[in-house]
Specification:
By secondary structure, this protein is an alpha/beta fold. The protein has 13 helices and six strands. The radius of gyration is 42 Å and the shape is elongated. The N and C termini lie far apart (about 95 Å).
């Protein structure tokens, strides 16, 4: 994967962390937090005790997401149990900081919580499993540093030469509003409501009904051909019987011929 593609993916993952619908769709419990993305004071970077980190998460209503991690801890299926990875669990919040003044030690003992430095943002942390929308807690300094790292739509990045924030392809992504707008409706054709059923094409040489539609005399021709064939078969049988001295076979059409003659 190219460097630009990686940067594009990281920018997309960062943008998704600020959409509550995507964060909740990933399973994070963010019903009680005041805002998304959650930006907190830089004082958090100086935490060095797990007790302080727990109090901080409870105060900001983010502990519900950690409680979900505790509830989902279970035994791994398969042989991974024998390879030093016995348990699996869901992921909790990701704490993004600028300077580590003890923060990593404070949060490392809380299950599901990951920490990462803003200069080293990792796609596997921002979008684990390839699914964007992880619940992120930003320190104020880390959040302010994003513009310098990835640039804006008007200003290029200072840390990554020649890189600007990707432009959105659509100014308005609400598809239902776009389809109902008058400007688009004027250039669209009217919907085709008439249902046209396909007529099956049949071969008249194999389908007698199709042949009769094209040529009604085909029934007479077919019957005459059958009668001539039967007559030839009888003539051949009579010749064989005469040569061998055997009695002639009965004529199946004699009865019908006599009936026709009597009517005349």
């Amino acid at each position: 994967m190219g460097t630009n593609q990686k940067r594009y993916a990281i920018c997309s993952a960062i943008a998704a962390t600020g959409v509550p619908a995507l964060v909740m769709a990933k399973g994070h419990q963010i019903q009680g937090i005041p805002e998304v993305p959650l930006v907190v004071a830089d004082k958090v970077q100086s935490f060095s005790k797990t007790k302080e980190a727990v109090v901080f998460l409870r105060k900001n209503k983010a502990w519900a997401d950690v409680a979900k991690v505790y509830a989902t801890r279970r035994m791994r299926a398969g042989k991974g149990k024998l390879r030093n990875r016995r348990h699996v669990q869901k992921l909790g919040p990701l704490v993004i900081y600028d300077q580590d003044q003890g923060l990593t030690k404070a949060f490392r003992n809380i299950p599901g919580v990951d920490t990462i430095q803003v200069d080293n943002l990792n796609l596997l942390k921002l979008a684990p499993g390839g699914h964007v929308g992880r619940f992120c807690i930003w320190t104020e300094a880390a959040f302010k540093k994003l513009d310098g790292l990835y640039g804006t739509w008007r200003k290029a990045s200072t840390a990554k030469p020649g890189w600007n924030l990707p432009q959105p392809k659509m100014a308005n992504t609400d598809l239902s509003v776009l389809l109902k707008s008058e400007a688009i409706r004027k250039v669209m054709r009217a919907p085709v409501k008439k249902i046209v059923h396909a007529v099956p094409r049949t071969n008249p040489l194999k389908n007698i009904r199709q042949m009769l539609q094209l040529n009604p005399y085909a029934a007479v021709s077919k019957k005459n051909a059958e009668l001539v064939s039967a007559k030839n078969i009888r003539a051949k049988a009579l010749k064989v019987a005469k040569a061998s001295g055997k009695p002639a076979p009965a004529n199946p059409m004699a009865k019908r011929a006599a009936k026709v003659k009597s009517k005349k």
